[in-house]
Structure formats: structure tokens, C-alpha cells
């Protein structure tokens, strides 16, 4: 892991680099550009990503490709029912030569951690990881150890199995900045993927490293130079408030949901080479940022209405900012710290 | 002004349509019951004239049920975001409900149709027992037939039900045909009107002064660009003018629309073409949501874009006028 000092990046420069990274990753993860872009938004916005989909859709490949191309230190934890918190965070052990207790860091001490099938482990171990995610540090034996920067968790969650799984509680789901669904490839792209595999001698495309941890941090810093108009802040608040008032939602989005929306919208603006957020940015990230944060009323489960449907309805019903700015906020764009 | 003519009677036609549908359903049910002889075993026992055509009726009911279900599904899909929770709850029951009703009717008709055929009326044995004349063997047959004839005429009332039923059915068929024709005509005209209101057909422009409104909007944008000393407010005013002119062309901004959504709908309706509208939208977003200093170059870009949009809208209006002008009068 070599963290090189990188100069400050403008949002436009950060956007160009992010697209170059995505282009390289797309050589390995074929036909999933929208999902890749969402994960990139999560990385840029400084959050953690939950990928929820069926097995075999390339979740692990996606995480590994990101770590390779971004030049991040990569670890993977396969979550199992017998995994202990110390298996994640690390534990002190007795060094016979020195006669002292020495801390052995766990896999969580990495830049990019793939938490595979996070719902297969009991809540105790899940909590250990989620605490590390929220605080970016681990406290063991009274000593707090910071995690390396950047620290990104890409967790996968298999939505179809119920036996032997421990569903993440809503409070813990809230710690993921966004949830991504990958979905199946269209038939013609799946055929192209198979042909590409046949034409290639290796099992996977070999990707080149285009970035490093220092540059990823600089790209994240570029987000701070993206401005958010006051009307858009009001729009974001209106969206969050609508989830709390919606008749089909039992528990609406938390304030953390609002912050996620702001940061993801800024990240999307960076990806588009802009240094200002537009309503399209907010609308585009509302579903991945909010759908996993709300709890629907129990009766909706019977009717097969998902949180995605409800949030999509909310997005279609909350008014976007007016064309002409309001008089009192005409000169209002100001950066929003998250 | 275009809106005023689009939905002149919001509530009453729906009530009328519901009443007509209920009446139609009652008529069809009555006809089916009479035709299939649902009253078998009662005082009005006898075979209905459509007894042999029960399969045809089954097909008819199945097709009608399917058509209703398709229509209900389309209406649901048109609700933005699934509608309110109550609407969504009702909507989720409509299609299964119609399907169950259609299936129940089909099964009921099939049962009525097949059961009657399996149990034909049994001849009374007295007719066979009667012939005992030693003279000839040819005698029994006429006695049997005459016996059956007696029974038919004896069981029915003096009124000729067969003729009455046929007349009634003929009247019903005519009434149904008229009803279907009226519904079809109303549906077609409503569809045409809604398409025009949505602006999804061919420009969707009307020849009733829209050109003046368009010209006004473009002029307003031009004036804003020329007069306003601040390019930012000038560009916003210019975009607002484009938005107004699109609204006159039938594509108005919905409350949850972003500039991109509006642009997409306008492009789908053929109101805007090329890069001009996209350029103006981009400039507007930059002017509206950023604090960049905007210069005269951007103002000029906006001016060029507005001229191009105005020219296209005027051309589309003229074409639409030429195409729809005559039909417009009949719609009113």
C-alpha cells in the first residue's frame, strides 16, 4: 500500500479519472455500467456499498476489480455462522519471544473490504464490522486503532435465502450509503460475455492499476468543492420528509439518509464533470440511497410491494425546484458539509 | 385554453358509463339465463333457444372478461407512481376480481349448458303402454308421438314462449350492438382527445392561436436575453420562455419533473429536435444551480438555441395546423 501525496483535484479532473477507472473495470465486469457507476458514487462519497443480488452475478468480481484498478489494499471475509468478531477486527495474541500481548490486525485493516454474504453471520459479528464502518476505527482492549484511508466496505447480501441467515437490522442497513442491485445481463450481452471468455486464455481479464489510495482520497476531497443550491437542499429535505409521511412506510429515512443523498448527488455531479448539483443528480440517486433505509408497513409484504416501488412513487410525487428561483434564495448556492 | 376543452365533463360521463355497464351486465345475465333455460324445473320449464349455442356464450363472456381485465390493467399503469395507497389497493384487486368473475361465469354457463344436454326429458311410459289393439303393429308409434306432443303443449302456458323469447333476444342483440357502437365511438374520441392533450401525437399543436402564444414566448425570451444585464437571470428567463412555449404546445412541466424529464417528453412528442433544446437546458441548469460567473458567450449560445427552438416550434405548429385543422372543429 503506497499512499502517494496527490495535488488537489478539481471536480472535473476527479470525474475524468473516475470514468477512466470505470472504463478499465468494465473490461472485467461486462455490461454492468449502471451498477459500476453506483459503486463508484459510493466510493467517491466516502461511504460503504451494499450489493444485494442473487449468487453468480459478479458481485465478488466487481469488488476485486475496483480494488485492483483503484490500487487499494483488498481483503475479503466470507461470513459464516461461526465467524467471531475477533476474526473480523483482529485480536491480541501472546508473543512467546517477547512475552507480551501483541495485536494481530484482522482483515478489516484494509482499504477495500469485501464482506461476502454478510447476512450469514450472527448479529454480534455483523455489529463488529458495522461499528468499524461507522467509526473508521477499531477499539480492542481499550486501544483505538484507526483504519487505513480510504476505507470502503463492499458487502454482499443474498436476498433469496432465509434458512441459516441473519437479516441485517434496519439500523445497521442505514450505515450503508447505498444499496446496489446488479440484475441479470441482457441475453445478447451475456452471450458476448461468454464469447469473450472463450476468446481469452485466462479466467479473468487482467486489469491494470490506474490509481492509488492517495488519489482516491483526493477524488473524495473534490466533492467538497461541489456546490448545492439552497432549493436543492429543500428538495432533498422534502424527499426525506415524504418518506416519513408516506402512508405505506412505517419508519422513514433517517437524517443520515439526507446526508447520503447530498453526498451521492455531489458524487454524481463530479462524475458528470460539474461542480454544482442539479435536480437530476438527486433524483437519480434517491432510490439507491433511500430504499434500504425505510421500513414498509407489514401488510405490504403480502402484496409484494417493495421499498423500491414506494420510493420510486415518492420521487415521482415530490415537486422539484421551481424554474425561476425564489426571491429570497436567488443567490443562495452554498456548499453543504456532510 | 387547450386544457379547457380536453376534459369538459370530468365526473358525469364516468357515472353514466358505470350505469350503462351495470345495465348491460344485467341484460347479458338475463339473456344468458333465459337462453340457457336456467329456470328448468320451475313452472317455466322448457328449452331456451340458445341452449345449443352455450359454447358461443362462454366464448363471448371469456372474451369480454379478458378485454375488461386488459383495460383495467392499462388504467392502472397510467396512474403515476401507483396512485394513492387506496387506489393501489383497489387497483391490485381489479384484475384478479374481473378474472374470477369471468371464470365463474364461464364455469356457470358451461355447467348450465352441459347438464341440460345430459338429462333430456324422459317420455312418460303411458304412451307405450297404451297400444294393445290386436289388429296391427304399426299403431304404437303415432300414439307415442301424439303423447309427446300433448306433453309439450300441456306443460307450457297458452302464450308462445318460444316466439316471445326469440323476439326478446333479437331486441337485446340490437340494444347490445347499439351500446357497443356508442361505447366504441366515445372511447375512440376520448382517446384521440387525450392523445392530443398529452402531446404524444405528431407535434400536438393546435391551430387556435398557438402560434401567437409561441411567438410571444420566444419574443419574451429574446427580450430577456437582450435586456437583462445579468446573463444568469437572462438565461433563466429564456429557459422559462421555452418552458412556456412547450406548455402551449401541449407539454407542460409536471411538478416532479426535472429539466431532463421535460426535455425527454418534449422530444418524444416531436416538439423539440436537435441539440438546441439540450444546449439551452444545460445553460439553464448551470445558471440556475451554480454560482459560476456566466459571460456573454453563454448569453449568445442561449440566444442561438432559442431562435432555433422557436423556428422549429413554429414549423411544427404550421404542420399540425395543416394536418389537424379540419378535424379540430369536429372534436369541439
Automatic annotation (TrEMBL), chain A:
Residues 48-178 form the ATPase AAA-3 domain. SUPFAM superfamilies: P-loop containing nucleoside triphosphate hydrolases (SSF52540). The keyword Nucleotide-binding applies. InterPro entries: ATPase_AAA-3, CbbQ/NirQ/NorQ/GpvN, ChlI/MoxR_AAA_lid, P-loop_NTPase. Keywords: ATP-binding, Nucleotide-binding. It holds the Pfam family AAA_3. Residues 317-338 are annotated as: Disordered. One of its GO terms (molecular function) is ATP hydrolysis activity. Gene3D superfamilies: Magnesium chelatase subunit I, C-Terminal domain, P-loop containing nucleotide triphosphate hydrolases. Residues 242-310 form the ChlI/MoxR AAA lid domain. Coiled coil: none annotated. Signal peptide: none annotated. Residues 317-327 have a biased composition (Low complexity). PANTHER family: METHANOL DEHYDROGENASE REGULATOR, MOXR FAMILY PROTEIN. Belongs to the MoxR family. This is ATPase. It comes from Streptacidiphilus pinicola.
Amino acid at each position: 500500500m503506497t499512499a502517494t501525496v496527490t495535488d488537489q483535484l478539481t471536480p472535473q479532473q476527479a470525474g475524468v479519472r473516475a470514468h477512466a477507472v470505470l472504463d478499465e473495470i468494465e473490461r472485467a465486469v461486462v455490461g454492468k455500467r449502471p451498477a459500476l457507476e453506483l459503486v463508484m458514487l459510493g466510493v467517491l462519497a466516502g461511504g460503504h456499498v451494499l450489493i444485494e443480488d442473487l449468487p453468480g452475478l459478479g458481485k465478488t468480481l466487481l469488488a476485486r476489480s475496483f480494488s485492483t484498478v483503484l490500487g487499494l489494499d483488498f481483503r475479503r471475509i466470507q461470513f459464516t455462522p461461526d465467524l467471531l468478531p475477533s476474526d473480523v477486527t483482529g485480536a491480541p495474541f501472546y508473543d512467546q519471544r517477547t512475552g507480551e500481548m501483541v495485536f494481530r490486525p484482522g482483515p478489516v485493516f484494509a482499504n477495500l473490504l469485501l464482506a461476502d454474504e454478510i447476512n450469514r453471520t450472527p448479529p454480534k459479528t455483523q455489529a463488529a464490522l458495522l461499528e468499524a464502518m461507522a467509526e473508521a476505527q477499531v477499539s480492542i482492549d481499550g486501544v483505538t486503532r484507526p483504519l487505513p484511508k480510504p476505507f470502503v466496505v463492499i458487502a454482499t447480501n443474498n436476498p433469496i435465502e432465509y434458512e441459516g441467515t441473519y437479516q441485517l437490522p434496519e439500523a445497521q442497513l442505514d450505515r450503508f450509503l447505498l444499496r446496489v442491485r446488479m440484475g441479470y445481463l441482457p441475453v445478447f450481452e451475456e452471450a458476448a460475455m461468454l464469447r469473450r471468455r472463450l476468446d481469452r486464455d485466462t479466467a479473468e481479464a487482467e486489469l491494470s492499476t490506474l490509481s492509488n489510495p492517495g488519489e482516491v482520497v483526493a477524488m473524495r476531497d473534490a466533492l467538497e468543492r461541489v456546490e448545492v443550491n439552497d432549493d436543492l437542499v429543500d428538495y432533498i429535505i422534502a424527499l426525506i420528509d415524504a418518506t416519513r409521511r408516506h402512508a405505506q412506510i412505517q419508519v422513514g429515512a433517517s437524517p443520515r439518509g439526507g446526508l447520503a443523498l447530498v453526498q451521492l448527488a455531489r458524487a454524481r455531479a463530479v462524475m458528470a464533470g460539474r461542480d454544482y448539483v442539479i435536480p437530476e443528480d438527486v433524483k437519480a440517486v434517491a432510490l439507491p440511497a433511500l430504499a434500504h433505509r425505510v421500513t414498509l408497513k407489514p401488510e405490504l409484504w403480502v402484496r409484494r410491494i417493495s421499498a423500491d416501488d414506494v420510493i420510486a412513487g415518492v420521487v415521482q410525487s415530490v415537486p422539484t425546484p421551481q424554474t425561476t428561483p425564489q426571491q429570497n434564495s436567488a443567490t443562495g448556492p452554498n456548499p453543504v458539509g456532510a | 385554453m387547450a386544457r379547457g376543452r380536453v376534459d369538459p365533463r370530468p365526473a358525469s360521463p364516468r357515472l353514466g358509463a358505470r350505469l350503462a355497464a351495470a345495465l348491460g351486465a344485467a341484460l347479458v345475465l338475463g339473456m344468458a339465463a333465459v337462453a340457457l333455460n336456467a329456470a328448468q324445473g320451475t313452472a317455466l320449464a322448457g328449452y331456451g333457444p340458445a341452449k345449443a349455442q352455450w359454447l358461443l356464450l362462454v366464448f363471448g363472456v371469456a372474451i369480454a372478461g379478458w378485454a375488461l381485465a386488459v383495460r383495467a390493467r392499462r388504467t392502472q399503469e397510467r396512474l403515476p407512481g401507483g396512485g394513492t395507497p387506496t387506489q393501489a389497493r383497489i387497483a391490485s384487486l381489479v384484475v384478479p376480481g374481473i378474472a374470477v368473475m369471468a371464470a365463474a361465469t364461464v364455469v356457470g354457463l358451461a355447467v348450465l349448458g352441459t347438464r341440460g344436454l345430459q338429462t333430456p326429458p324422459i317420455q312418460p311410459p303411458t304412451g307405450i303402454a297404451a297400444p294393445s289393439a290386436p289388429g296391427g303393429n304399426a299403431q304404437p308409434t303415432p300414439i307415442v308421438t301424439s303423447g309427446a306432443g300433448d306433453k309439450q303443449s300441456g306443460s307450457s302456458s297458452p302464450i308462445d314462449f318460444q316466439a316471445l323469447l326469440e323476439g326478446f333476444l333479437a331486441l337485446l342483440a340490437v340494444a347490445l350492438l347499439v351500446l357497443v357502437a356508442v361505447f366504441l365511438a366515445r372511447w375512440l374520441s376520448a382517446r384521440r382527445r387525450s392523445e392530443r392533450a398529452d402531446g404524444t401525437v405528431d407535434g400536438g399543436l393546435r391551430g387556435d392561436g398557438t402560434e401567437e402564444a409561441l411567438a410571444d414566448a420566444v419574443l419574451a425570451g429574446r427580450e430577456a436575453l437582450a435586456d437583462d444585464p445579468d446573463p444568469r437571470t437572462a438565461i433563466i428567463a429564456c429557459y422559462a420562455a421555452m418552458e412556456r412555449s412547450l406548455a402551449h404546445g401541449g407539454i407542460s412541466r409536471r411538478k416532479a419533473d426535472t429539466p431532463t424529464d421535460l426535455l425527454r417528453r418534449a422530444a418524444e412528442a416531436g416538439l423539440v429536435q436537435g441539440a438546441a433544446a439540450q444546449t439551452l437546458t444545460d445553460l439553464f441548469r448551470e445558471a440556475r444551480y451554480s454560482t459560476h460567473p456566466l459571460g456573454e458567450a453563454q448569453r449568445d449560445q442561449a440566444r442561438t438555441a432559442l431562435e432555433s427552438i422557436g423556428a422549429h416550434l413554429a414549423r411544427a405548429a404550421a404542420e399540425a395546423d395543416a394536418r389537424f385543422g379540419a378535424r379540430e372543429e369536429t372534436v369541439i
